[in-house]
Design brief:
This protein has 312 residues and is an alpha/beta fold. It has two domains: 241 residues, Alpha-Beta Complex (Spore Coat Polysaccharide Biosynthesis Protein SpsA, Chain A); 66 residues. It is 47% helix and 17% strand. It has eleven helices and eight strands. The C terminus is likely disordered.
């Protein structure tokens, strides 16, 4: 019998833990597999961990890792992969039910036919906020233009990974884990499943526009050569600024040498500022990598809990 772990990152999802568990269990019926449900409590500030413990007390298939603080979903997924690396396969899925557990049987079907990665993608972005859709489309277009390993627009973290793929991902020692990029970069035989957008029923997403922007930019920096365009951007912005200043000069009939010198200094300052930002950003990323801090710290695991005593 094959061993398969369902990896479930959770941050402030107390209202979704039990509904997700009830829904997922409907599709964990394949007799060829022994299933485990591994919840990763990513430093939640609500009762997420308490809800996980409740179902772990009644179902031995349910286990958990609880972080000492919030380290982010990428770290949670990485922890799940490390913990499950001896299993035959894993499935990563969110617990907010926006990613349908009903696709699990179909994932297993394609896995049995030899696919090492079975990933999911939204058919369309219908139902998502229009502004988010606009920026997502722009992001994927820019990312794919400057990357050797393009991403599917709408691809999700919800996917099945064979043991060999898990080992390949864990062998990558990048300190920053942009999992969508890692999933694409390692390759292997892949199958995509599509589904319609599902609105979130309970709770509120922890992803803000700012956090999504930073996440996307860091991912682009890790897997593309986007920062190589900074000198070009600097030059273009400089030309624009010079043009604006020239128009200003013509309108107000300025012709002094000091004014022209100010124009040139402004142009030079702008170009240097853009280039300096890019250089310092790269230096910061190199520093971040060399510090080699752990991606997460575990405060508690299900192995430390005596459920028989907790039920008394």
């Amino acid at each position: 019998m094959k061993q398969l772990t369902i990896i479930i990152p959770a941050y402030n999802e107390e209202t979704n833990i039990r509904p997700f568990y009830d829904e997922a269990c409907k599709y964990l019926t394949n007799p060829e597999y022994e299933f485990k449900l591994l919840f990763i409590n990513d430093g939640s500030r609500d009762d997420t961990l308490a809800e996980i413990k409740k179902i772990a007390a009644i179902d031995k298939r349910v286990i958990f890792l609880s972080f000492s603080r919030n380290f982010g979903k990428e770290s949670a997924m990485h922890a799940g992969l490390e913990y499950s690396r001896k299993d035959d396969a894993v499935i990563i899925i969110d617990c907010d039910l926006q990613q349908p557990p009903s696709l699990i049987p179909e994932m297993l079907k394609w896995y049995s036919e030899g696919y090492k990665v079975v990933y999911t993608r939204g058919k369309t972005r219908k139902g998502e906020p229009k502004v988010r859709t606009l920026f997502a489309n722009l992001y994927y277009g820019l990312y794919n233009k400057y990357s050797d390993r393009p991403l599917d627009n709408g691809a999700k973290d919800f996917q099945l990974l064979d043991k060999q793929v898990v080992e390949a991902i864990l062998s990558i020692k990048d300190n920053f884990r942009f999992m969508k990029g890692l999933f694409s970069w390692v390759g292997f035989k892949r199958k995509v499943l599509e589904y319609d957008f599902i609105a979130r029923k309970n709770g509120k997403s922890s992803w803000s526009f700012k956090s999504l922007f930073k996440y996307g930019f860091d991912g682009m920096n890790q897997f593309s050569n986007i920062l190589l365009v900074l000198p070009v951007v600097s030059f273009v912005m400089g030309i624009i600024m010079l043009g604006v200043n020239i128009v200003f000069r013509i309108v107000y009939i300025f012709s002094t040498t000091s004014f022209m010198l100010a124009l040139l200094l402004n142009l030079l300052w702008l170009m240097i500022s853009v280039l300096a930002y890019g250089m310092f950003y790269l230096l910061y990323q190199i520093r971040r990598q060399t510090l080699n801090r752990p991606l997460y710290l575990i405060e508690e695991t299900s192995e430390e809990v005596n459920y028989d005593e907790s039920l008394e």
